[in-house]
Structures are given as structure tokens and as C-alpha cells.
């Protein structure tokens, strides 16, 4: 199955950031994200959710609609990622998953780490910033005119991340070790006209960078396996009735 880019519209904040849907992308509206695809005139290939955050009309029951129970284990965004993954997508651009409820934001960031664990890459777009995760690999940024004061930050999602390098950034970390409970990589910057890279040889990093920056080229240092799991359309068995 050939790799495809997936664009997911979630139900959170959209700010005034431009939205880019590449030609041929597989588009998913996750729950209230359908309000946004409708407003933008974007056709969703699949609509999924329990529709508790949808303000407009509920979608018709068709082959392109996946209705989920409200009392479920997987959040709507994870369900959307599972659908995209099953269609061969490994690169995900996600709008409406940052801002608003802080628990939803944390959940979305964790899901980028889940994608990275299996060899995928997810980019969360919001408020002029992109958030992503990389595991045992590199994000290479082409040289560009960087805006002063626009920050690049790196955090360890894994307990320990080893062999972290940031060549080309203002603060060039070399073979560093970052941990999940010590903040050392916040508030770095791109340098104008200088190509840069953020890489980690053992661990998972969460990386934030300005939305106007070039999309980084992703390199993985090893083969990844597994998938995101089967789509769960059942009421949570954890609930006590």
C-alpha cells in the first residue's frame, strides 16, 4: 500500500492559521471538525465521531460516516488516526487539536508520540505553531529566513532521550541527553539562511516550531513496526453498569 498524506480536522481551536490540504490527501473530519470542513468547503473522505461536539447537522449514515458511542475508550482523534493509518497514511496534518481544553491538547501531543513509535509523523497546527514528535530519527529543516523571536523547543517525551543533536540552531546541542522531568530544550531559535536539524538516536522528542517554517524532512534511523490498533466502535468495557 503506497503511503499517503492524511489531513484531519478536529473540533478544537482553529485561530487564523492558513489551512493546507495537499492534492490527493485523504481527509477526515473528526466529530466537530465536520463544522470546519463544511465552513471551509473541504470535502471529507470520512467523517467519524460520537458527534457530541458537532454544532451543525449530523452527517447522513453512509459508507463514509463512522458513528462511535460516546462512552468509549479511544478519543475521536485517535479513531481518526486509526482510519487514516488503515488507508496507508503515515504523514498526518491535524488542525483543531491545539488550544481550548488543555486535556485535549495533551492528548493530541501524546498521539503524535504514538505515531512516531510506529514510524509515522503527525503535525499539530495551531496558533502559529506546529507540534510534532520524532523517535530515533531526525527532522531536517531547509535554510530559510527565520523570524526573530520565534521559538523552537524540544522536550523529551520518553523518560530519557539520548544522542540529541541540534545542528544549525542558535543553541547547538551536541550529543545531549534530555529527560522528561528536566526542561533543557525550550526557547531555541532557527538562524536565518542556515539549514538545521533536530535528531535523537534513542528516545522520543516532542518538537515545537513556527508554522511559517519549512516542513521538515523526516529521516528514521531504524525500521519501525506495528500499527495503531483496530478501530474501536464499542462502549468501553471499563464502565461499571
UniProtKB/TrEMBL annotation:
Coiled-coil intervals, chain numbering: none
Instruction: Give the EC number(s) listed in the UniProt record.
Output: 2.7.6.2
Give the record's GO biological process terms: thiamine diphosphate biosynthetic process; thiamine metabolic process
Q: InterPro entries, from UniProt?
A: Thi_PPkinase, Thiamin_PyroPKinase_B1-bd, TPK, TPK_catalytic, TPK_catalytic_sf
Classification via Pfam families: TPK_B1_binding, TPK_catalytic
Q: What keywords is this UniProt entry annotated with?
A: ATP-binding, Kinase, Nucleotide-binding, Transferase
- Per the UniProt record, which residue ranges are transmembrane? none
Report the protein name in the record. Answer: Thiamine diphosphokinase
Name the species this protein comes from: Bifidobacterium biavatii DSM 23969
Q: Supply one GO molecular-function term.
A: kinase activity
UniProt keyword Cell division present: no
Extract the SUPFAM superfamilies matched here. Thiamin pyrophosphokinase, catalytic domain (SSF63999)
> Which residue ranges does the record assign to the Thiamin pyrophosphokinase thiamin-binding domain?
137-206
Amino acid at each position: 500500500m503506497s503511503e499517503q498524506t492524511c489531513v484531519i480536522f478536529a473540533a478544537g481551536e482553529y485561530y487564523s492559521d492558513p489551512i493546507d490540504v495537499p492534492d490527493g490527501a485523504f481527509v477526515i473530519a473528526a466529530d466537530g471538525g465536520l463544522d470546519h470542513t463544511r465552513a471551509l468547503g473541504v470535502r471529507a473522505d470520512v467523517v467519524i465521531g460520537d458527534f457530541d461536539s458537532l454544532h451543525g447537522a449530523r452527517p447522513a449514515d453512509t459508507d463514509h460516516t463512522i458513528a462511535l458511542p460516546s462512552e468509549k475508550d479511544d478519543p475521536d482523534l485517535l479513531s481518526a488516526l486509526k482510519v487514516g493509518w488503515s488507508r496507508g497514511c503515515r504523514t498526518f496534518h491535524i488542525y483543531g487539536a491545539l488550544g481550548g481544553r488543555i486535556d485535549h491538547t495533551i492528548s493530541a501531543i501524546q498521539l503524535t508520540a504514538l505515531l512516531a513509535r510506529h514510524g509515522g509523523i503527525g503535525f499539530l497546527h495551531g496558533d502559529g505553531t506546529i507540534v510534532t514528535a520524532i523517535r530515533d530519527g531526525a527532522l531536517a529543516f531547509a535554510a530559510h529566513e527565520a523570524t526573530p523571536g520565534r521559538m523552537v523547543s524540544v522536550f523529551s517525551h520518553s523518560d530519557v532521550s539520548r544522542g540529541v543533536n541540534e545542528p544549525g540552531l542558535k543553541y547547538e546541542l551536541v550529543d545531549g541527553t534530555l529527560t522528561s522531568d528536566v526542561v533543557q530544550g525550550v526557547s531555541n531559535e532557527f538562524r536565518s539562511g542556515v539549514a538545521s536539524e533536530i535528531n535523537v538516536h534513542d528516545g522520543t522528542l516532542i518538537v515545537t516550531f513556527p508554522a511559517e517554517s519549512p516542513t521538515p524532512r523526516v529521516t528514521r534511523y531504524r525500521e519501525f513496526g506495528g500499527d495503531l490498533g483496530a478501530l474501536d466502535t464499542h462502549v468501553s468495557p471499563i464502565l461499571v453498569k
